[in-house]
Specification:
The complex is a heterodimer. By secondary structure, chain A is of the alpha/beta class. In chain A, 46% of the residues lie in helices and 13% in strands. In chain A, strands 1, 2, 3, 6, 10, 11 and 12 form a seven-stranded mixed sheet that branches. Chain B is flat. By secondary structure, chain B is mainly α. Chain B is 73% helix and 0% strand. The chains are: A alpha/beta, B mainly alpha. Chains A and B meet through helix 1, helix 5, helix 6 and helix 17 of A and helix 1 and helix 11 of B. Chain A: Pfam families: SBP_bac_8. Chain A: Keywords: Signal.
């Protein structure tokens, strides 16, 4: 008897708690929006004044020690010393986690003081947030350093085919490259397209694998295969049509299933991240790794993540390259400080430091070199002269650069890979 | 001040004191389940879905991958629980003989309790991976010539690595709860039985085992329920082609296409319901046991 009553009391209390919790939602959405609008229409000095003393929560993929270190040490100290801003980097294993966080907050009616101030973003994640109307802006062209960026270049102004319209500001550029060990392989033995890769893998069973989509480079590896087997990237710049996609994608699934028995662990499993793939390569379990760093792999070699004799190269059929950005959620608590960060990372000197494998991590620059003058121009030329054998030459990269697919293809390829390759016996 | 002779008033005061913490616990817990439940029914205004339907569940219950993950998860939990319980009982029986060294034995037994599962998982990975420490030692000893010759123990198709981690972590947990029974009020009964001339097997059958069964069973249910819903261990140690249910939910949740969100939530609800059943089972069982004891 007694027990029953206490159960009732607890249930009642739970109910009360729930009702109180439910009532606390829905506060003034307009207030947050008005503050944001004032920021967009005000002067840059006002933004700097507002940003002072704020803490920026920057959500970003945290899978690379070199990137994490550069962000914390370099940006962190400049922001602190020059602008009085504290940088708080929040590492993610997948950018979609930050996207979900913003969407959850939007759904819960938390229209201001959100927990995410800045996201390192591109492609389908940007598309998701933009379509859900969950981004702040347009702010990109408001930044003083936007004068170095050529947003009229479609490669910069469009992200996976979607107009950025100032809702994300460029940070850098990347291009997919294969990495091999010159100690284990001669350049003449290297496969230079997916067809050759397949016969190479069949001749060397267990020595090749790729990181599983939806890990970024893994998806990109599959996208490039899609281009090669479907006769080039030109026909895919238009919006997604399921039937046309399926007709060509079948070839991709066939290819990947045929090569599967020759892969590492017979394709029973795949490395989950690009870091796992690099570890397999470094441990001499497989003969290829991937990189996205235009400035080369010297940073990872220096950190012991890749062997000293590792070299990057690209397929003759080309590899996908693109720009990556930062975006501010519509409900960010510290929009002014986030804008200061977005502006700072475009500073030419910091762009060059980031691109220099010795100081940054070899990320490609996001700014347009033709817009540089004087000392900055000189620095850029010095940087260009630096790239040695641990980097693919800039003009070779550019010649083999392919655009990425429109955003809608990414989930289609990822789902298809999961259901028709990964789970296929 | 908090004391009153009137029972209802005491109850009210007590309730009043509980509200803040319940607000927090119940608020977040039930709100989470409620939102998952609603989203699993395809209700997602953010992308313009405002009607309820069982579409996702119907799709889920027709999906071979879902069943494969479900049975894989159940199998892993069952294997991990059974092996942990077995080792824990043997360990507890063996350890209680050394009552005199109780303190440091207890310390040894409990030292891994505060270690988070994910740390254990990474340790297993570094030890048993194909290029892990043990593999390197066997290579150094000349037993293997290539990493690929080392047996696949982590990220394998059968969840060996996952079970290994759970066993490592849960054996002490079960052993501690069994040992506390074995060291306390079982002893006089056993002595009594011994005086009456029962042999070791009879003592085990009539006293030791029945007396430790409740705590063994309840700790095993906790282990089963925990391992069934755990995400980080299969994430680190599992093969990507053999996802457990929580991994399957996570994969759907991360899909940039928001229409997959309801699938993730439906899987979470399935996990919740199975765990609820385990809790009910646990409570029923505990109650029945308490009554029998009285």
């Amino acid at each position: 008897m007694r027990k029953k009553r206490s159960v009732k009391v607890i249930l009642f209390l739970c109910l009360v708690s729930l009702i109180i919790a439910a009532c606390s939602g829905k506060d003034s959405a307009d207030k947050g929006k008005a503050a944001g609008d004032a920021l967009l229409s005000g002067s840059w000095d006002q933004a700097l004044a507002e940003a002072k003393g704020q803490t920026v929560n920057w959500y970003m993929w945290g899978g690379s020690d070199a990137i994490n270190e550069f962000v914390d040490r370099k940006y962190g100290s400049v922001l602190k010393d020059k602008y009085g801003i504290t940088l708080h980097r929040v590492p993610l294993s997948d950018t979609a986690e930050a996207v979900n966080k913003v969407l959850n907050e939007k759904q819960a009616g938390k229209n201001k003081d959100g927990s995410v101030d800045l996201i390192w973003i591109n492609g389908e994640n940007f598309a998701t947030l933009k379509q859900a109307d969950a981004l702040f802006g347009p702010f990109a062209t408001k930044l003083p350093n936007a004068k170095y960026v050529d947003y009229s270049n479609p490669a910069v102004g469009k992200d996976f085919g979607l107009d950025t319209e100032g809702y994300e500001s460029v940070w850098g550029s990347a291009q997919f490259q294969f990495v091999y060990d010159s100690e284990r392989m001669k350049p003449s033995e290297l496969p230079h397209n997916y067809k050759e890769l397949k016969s190479w893998a069949e001749k060397h069973p267990g020595r090749f694998t790729y990181n599983a989509p939806p890990d970024f480079t893994g998806t990109r590896f599959v996208k490039q295969l899609f281009y090669e087997l479907s006769g080039g990237h030109q026909k895919w710049s238009k919006p997604f049509v399921q039937q046309e996609f399926d007709a060509e994608a079948t070839k991709v699934w066939d290819y990947l299933n045929e090569v599967k028995p020759s892969l590492w662990r017979k394709g029973e499993t795949y490395p989950k991240t690009i870091a796992e793939l690099a570890a397999l390569f470094n441990n001499n379990e497989v003969d290829f790794a991937f990189t996205q760093d235009i400035g080369g792999i010297a940073t990872d070699i220096g950190k012991g993540k890749l062997p000293k004799t590792a070299r990057p190269y690209v397929f003759d059929t080309g590899t996908i390259g693109d720009y990556h950005y930062v975006a501010i959620p519509y409900n960010a608590a510290h929009k002014a400080a986030a804008m200061v960060v977005a502006n700072l990372i475009l500073d030419p000197k910091l762009q060059f430091e980031k691109a220099d494998p010795a100081k940054g991590w070899g990320d490609g620059i996001g700014i347009d070199p033709s817009k540089l003058e004087g000392a900055n121009k000189k620095l850029y030329n010095e940087l260009k002269a630096k790239s040695g054998e641990t980097a693919v030459q800039a003009d070779v990269l550019l010649k083999h650069k392919l655009p990425d697919l429109p955003a809608a293809y990414t989930p289609a390829l990822e789902e298809g890979w999961k259901n028709l390759v990964l789970f296929q016996k | 001040m908090f004391y009153s002779k009137s029972k209802p008033i005491r109850l009210m005061i007590l309730s009043g004191m509980l509200v803040p913490s319940l607000l927090f616990v119940a608020g977040t817990f039930f709100a989470g389940i409620f939102i998952s439940g609603v989203q699993s029914l395809d209700y997602f205004p953010l992308i313009g879905k405002t009607t309820l339907s069982f579409r996702v569940y119907i799709e889920l219950f027709h999906s071979a991958i879902f069943y494969r993950s479900l049975f894989f998860s159940l199998g892993i939990s069952l294997a991990a629980t059974f092996i942990s319980a077995l080792i824990a009982v043997i360990l507890a029986l063996w350890l209680r003989r050394y009552v005199r060294h109780g303190r440091w034995l207890h310390f040894l037994l409990q030292f891994n309790l505060p270690v988070p599962h994910v740390v254990g998982a990474i340790a297993i990975l570094l030890l048993f991976g194909q290029s892990g420490l043990i593999s390197r030692l066997t290579y150094w000893a000349g037993m293997i010539q290539q990493p690929s010759q080392f047996p696949v123990l982590v990220t394998d198709q059968n969840g060996i690595g996952i079970v290994l981690e759970y066993v490592w972590k849960e054996v002490p947990f079960i052993a501690v709860s069994v040992l506390s029974i074995l060291k306390s009020w079982v002893v006089p009964y056993e002595k009594q039985l011994q005086l009456l001339g029962a042999n070791a097997w009879q003592r085990w059958k009539l006293v030791t085992f029945p007396f430790m069964l409740p705590s063994l069973l309840s700790s095993s249910i906790i282990v089963f329920a925990y391992t069934f819903g755990s995400f980080e261990v299969p994430y680190v140690l599992g093969s990507i082609s053999k996802p457990t249910l929580p991994i399957l939910a996570y994969q759907a949740y991360l899909n940039p296409n928001l229409t997959y969100r309801s699938e993730a939530m439906a899987i979470n609800i399935v996990i919740t319901i199975i765990s609820m059943f385990l809790v009910i089972f646990y409570m029923k069982w505990g109650e029945g046991y308490a009554e029998k004891r009285r």
